[in-house]
Write a structure and sequence with these properties.
Shape: globular
Bound molecules: iron/sulfur cluster
Number of strands: 8
Radius of gyration: 21 Å
Strand content: 5-15%
Largest sheet: 4 strands, parallel
Length: about 450
Amino acid sequence: MILYTFKKGVNVIDRLNQSELREMWEDLGMNLELHDQLLESNSRLFKKTHLWQKKRPAAMKLFDRALHDSHGQRVAEILDYRKGGGKSVGTFCIYVPDEIAMAANVLTIPLCGGSGWSVSYADEMLPRDICPLVRSTFGMALSETCPYKTLKEYPLGETTCDAKKKTWDLFGIPAMEVPQKKNEEDRKLWISEVTTFMKDMEKVSGTEVTVDKLRDSIRKCNRKRVILQQINGFRRLKTPPISGLDALLVSQVALNMDIDNFISAGEELLEELMERADNDVSAFDGDGVRVLFAGTPSPMGYAKVHWAAETSGLQIVADESCTGIRYYRDLVPEDLDTLDEMIEAIADRYFKIDCPCFSPNTERFDNIADVIDEFQAEAVVHNILQFCHGFNIEAGALDKMLIEKDIPSLKIVCDYSEEDGEQIKIRMEAFREIIESKRNR
Ligand code: SF4
Ligand code: SF4
């Protein structure tokens, strides 16, 4: 029985059955016993964090499936692509320009881990007091449960935070240099890094990046980002037709799904959201407190703080993280004529990313102030992964701006473990009560 299908059915290969999947994982050299534990943990958590919601758009089934396919059918698609001569590189950050890799026929595979299950397996190589995102990623690789470990020419890091930089050194991973300031000389350095990245991608695939190819990939990446903008745009409504949990899921799988399949699924969701908006159908029961989530990324598999908020009467109406607005806010102009102009425009688009690895990072403050106004957020939750010093310290400076705007904030610093979920919920409930009483003042 077909329960759901992509409307335009693009880039689809035959779905593998369970025994074919196991054979594929075995051929990839994975530890099947541990991988079963990982899948069981992910699936149990997903049921807990997402499936309690009673008013989800029907099209969310496409994204639920994409999440479950991330270790199965998606791997089969990439394997198939590589068997046909396709090349791929692993990435860990949204600074790596997809447009350029795509124009060189190289697929980028985001590798950031969001599973708490794999974190302790990183102990073999990494200290315990670094952020769980890095530990989860390398825990998966070290426990032989990452299906992407051998599905790439190489992993490519970037010089953002200390935890990542030193991990690249430890594992011998090459890295793009992301400057730490945004002056003109830093911009020039970044343009030259992006140019080097293009040459590296050309070498990897043996394909020259041409004006036409780059224009096509710019258009396609823009299309994907516009779809994300439109889906998230519905969260401005008084009765948002999609929850924060589901909007996060869409952004998480956007990084892993085949881009054509994502565009097709996104268009299907958009049609449904339009209909729900016309009929005033909310994803939530009643009027909750509208909050903006700010902070670290929440990679696929991780939604603990979103779950704690939305099961406590908060309605997350915007996410400013890299699994949110930061990924899709800016586009690349499509009307440029030369390769140099395009490279510069792509570099500028990525240089606008307001990650706390920059000092100062005042753009982020302005962007957050705009999002609060645009989405009529009544409060901000700083959602911060433990040991991420950049976001954690920057939350204090952001709070000064929020106090001036009379916007209350709550800072949640935690790891991927499940133990503190109920405690976080208690804090969310108390926060909601404070904002409700502020409303009545
Ligand atoms: S938070 Fe910074 S380092 Fe992490 S993915 Fe985003 S831009 Fe990259
Ligand atoms: S969450 Fe923070 S510490 Fe962790 S990888 Fe991203 S920037 Fe680095």
